[in-house]
Amino acid sequence: MTGELASATSKVGPRVGRYRVNLTDLANIGGAALEAASSHSELILVDEVGPMELVSPEFRKGVRRCIDSGKPMLAVVHERLEDDLLNELRVKAEAIITLTVENRETAADGLAETLLEAAGGPKV
């Protein structure tokens, strides 16, 4: 499925920075994918839960379903973004990895190991 999640030229949708969020496409693509992942996936990956995504009630509902599923989840969130849903993700996290310019090349190794362990796979 394809769609436009945000646009700098659109005249409709909530404004986040210089963009307008397409709530319909975000619900039909992002929200639906999260709902499906909460039921059918062994490991849930979300890139990302940011300001644009948080304006969508359906996307938020999908994230909530993923959290409630109890399945291992990797979610990219902004370090300083404050929101009740993100704060819950942070509290329930087994690990939090902060990516920086200095560690972005080496962080993948530790991340892969953490994900494999969370999903019940072998240790690397």
List the helices and strands and how they pair.
Blueprint: E1 6-7, E2 15-16, E3 19-21, H1 23-40, E4 44-49, H2 51-54, H3 57-69, E5 73-77, H4 84-92, H5 107-118
Parallel strand pairs: 4-5
Antiparallel strand pairs: 1-3, 2-3
Number of helical regions: 5
Mean of residue pLDDT?
Answer: 91
Number of strands: 5
Q: Which sequence of SSEs, written as H and E, runs from N to C? A: EEEHEHHEHH
Measured distance between first and last alpha carbons: 35 Å
CATH class descriptor:
Alpha Beta
Helix/strand-derived category reads alpha+beta
| Relative strand content | 5-15%
Helical content, roughly? 40-55%
Multimerization state: single chain
Taken together, the total number of domains comes to 1
CATH superfamily: P-loop containing nucleotide triphosphate hydrolases
Strand order within the widest beta sheet: 1-3-2
CATH topology: Rossmann fold
- Low-confidence parts, pLDDT < 50 over ≥5 residues? none
Largest sheet: 3 strands, antiparallel
